[in-house]
Protein 1
Amino acid sequence: MTVIVELQPDVERGLLAQAQLHGMSLQEYVQQIIVREARVPESQPPRTGQDLIDACAKVRGLFTDEEIDTLFSRNPSHARPVDFE
């Protein structure tokens, strides 16, 4: 497939500078970018939560239930009066 792209002069200069830093021609460098961006990521297996279970297993037993409640407790949300008039 042939694609023609009109580049603004400053974009062309920037790409050319990057290509030269990598020891490539502008065409090779742009093609490398396109190939990299066109790759479809491999599908990830569905997450089951096992990573979280395994991480928690490493610290299980280090804290009492009361300590965990203290560490992760939230301040209660107090209702504010509302005036509907």
Protein 2
Amino acid sequence: MIEIVINSDYCKGCSICVAFCPRKVLQTSNHINSKGFMLPEVVNLDACTQCMLCEIVCPDLAIAVTGK
């Protein structure tokens, strides 16, 4: 099972992960972290191919893709 974990303490809401996801697995949500940033959320996990682009491009190391 694939899991995408977003660390809300690290995320600054830049949405780079959302922009780079080729399968549109992520989108910007209305959830706000303690720093006031809007967090990304997983909306289509079934489409995830574990390409890891979201994890690779995150400048804050706030996202991790795990599982098989």
Protein 3
Amino acid sequence: MLKNRLLIAFSAAVVLLVMFSCNKEPDFVGLDLLPGGDRLGMDITDTLDILAHTISEDKLRTDALSINLLGHINDTTFGQVSASIYTQYRLESSNFKFGAGAVADSMFLTLVYAGRYGDTLSPHHVKVYELDDKLTAENEKVYYSNDTCAIKSNPIGDITFVPDFRPDTVRKLPPLLRIPLTYEFMQKFITADESTLSTNNLFMEVFKGLFLEADPTAISGAGSMLYFNLLHAESKLQLYYHNDTDTAAKVNFIITNNAIKFNHYDHDYTSATPLLKQQLQGDILAGEQKLYLQSMAGTKVNLRIPYIGSIPGKEKIVVNEALLVFTNAEPQSMFLPPPQLSLRLYSDSGEYVIFPEERYNALYFGGQYQKRGEYNFRITKYVQERMMHPEEPDYGMVLIVAGSALSSNRVVLYGPGSETSAVKLKIYYSMSGL
């Protein structure tokens, strides 16, 4: 139990006091950032209490992503998560004209693959809708993961497929998804007034954009997220047509850096594991056993190490290195763990603050997934300062998936009270001889 662990932590601190009592009272020597492994001649303690629990992530900005996600995962641990896409399209050239006697032949939406996450063999059922409201950047409006936009009721595209990541070597095209669109939709372009195709502003008043969504996956433990590069030259709308003078013409409508596009994310934790649901419902003690991190505005972990400043004899201790260690509790899961986690301090206003070690060297600070199934963070300066200045306010810290807005990742970590590889703060220290 938590109370028992607090007693153990205090007892360990008393032992430290007995060990250090024979030394003379030192002045503060300072912080020495050491390379990992350079710890000869040091002592170590890892008994300080850690308080941690999972909470829901706030909305994330998704209108400035380099990659966009589309798909659905039915996760036995985290429940169901889905990603959908809203995007504008623009004219490839202004003052476009289809010519006399123009007739639409076919139209396709193409999306260039940029990766995937989850069950690679899961089929996807994707529907495409036309937007009924215009996306706007007026007054520097930004779009977040929980934003939506009105769409028209009938889909203009509908496809079931298993992703194929092989490039088209004949046509020299990258791996892409190609979705046929309805005749009624393509006629909208053919019959448009010439002024509509003269400028992007007029074009987007009539054709406001597209919405793409993936149907839910019914099979528990299945599904995947697809990554698409919408700014790739081959991610576009292609309309094939003929007119009185050209029997095989085509025109592209494209996504540029000026086009508005954003991801919408949905999380349903109804079928999630009970320990996760308990924490999301406010039971902080449920975080003692396991902690849950999920990208796409899913979940994050709040942490506190409240008794650093209460260590007896702390003024005699020089912290050479302090490692906060988290261990993957599901290393065999089909859902791969994030390659990188981020650890941040909270400010008094709840904003994220970067640790000094990360400013010094992000790679040295840590957070990368290790082969032994661990994430390590060096928080040496933080620990030393908390020991020397316990009167200073401490608003805690937060653990999140790095790049949470543009990647689909999740990991279950052992909590601070777990009997198996619990969260630990390993303090490598030496005693001042002054």
Protein 4
Amino acid sequence: MSDGGRLVFYVNGHGFGHATRCAAVIEEIWRIRPEQQVLVRTSAPAFLFRPLSSGPLRVLRGEVDPGTLQADPLTLDRPASLAARQEFQERLPLQVTAEVVLLRAESVALVVGDIPPLAFEVADALQVPGIALGNFSWDWIYEAYVAEQPEHELLVEAMRRSYRRAALLLRLPLHAEMDVFPRIEDIPLVVRRAARDRGATRAALGLARETRAVVLVSFGGFAAVRFGARTAPDPGPFRFITFGDGVPGLPADTVRLPVDHPYRHEDLVAAADAVITKPGYGTVAECLAARTPFLYTSRDDFREYDVLVREIARQAHAGFIGREDLLQIRWRAALEVLFSTPRPWADVRVDGAEVAARRLLTLAAERWKPAGSVC
């Protein structure tokens, strides 16, 4: 790619999965072309992009999509989600105008969306290709919600109109129906793989000589799970890693990391013997890449849950833990079954970040117009 324009990523701040996989793609872009200028528009926490400080990156914080609203990692607030989506959709034309003004001084070659409808409206207004990246789209998520609240029925079609403006969808594994996109290319799993040796991570955590199984408890980028043991907790004879103080009843030697801890999540997953989590793309992908067994629980009202669980059963060494046992910290039995019942891992390609990076750079080179561009 010759001297060209900036790549602009519009990234959902819903959870951490969208941000971490876009960060993986950006890392690969810089490995291929270190001087490539990248701008990220997102409401995701800035620390998710901290490992990218070595490259020419600008992160402009702002709400680009409401996603869904959740009381915690396992509980969806459907009425609040629909209300937020309705309000966002009503002001979408004004936000598109504001985004174009914001980007007018940039030489934009390509807009990548994971996966806000706004991204493709902005790309259309700038007359540059809009490339989608994802394993589900918000029209598919909200289709089920609108079925029970038909007063919001125009929302789904509005999102579909935006998605139809995309020039291409780079569709990830673990995906739902995404036929709304006019052109689709399937790519391998996009995931940030461990950059640090497992032993080095364990040593840094003070676990170098730990003989018990190490279990990471991680629920992504939402408010803490509502743990509350009404009976004596029974986590089992394991060594746990958690974040903050949100999990009561664990042994005193639990490693409790602060929110601003220096570790990459994928390094923690690779250093653990097992993970307790919710079934979401980010952590599931990291477990698949590291071949770290995991326990997952149910998630209320999440349409993507069934898709992910189906693929987990087919590809991963994983087990289920009931919601009540999870919240009451009765983990011993499920962990013992997980460790005593090995299941074969599928042979999964995990080079999707490189595949996506090369495809984006090629598309940008093909479409870059250094003179007379609208942007």
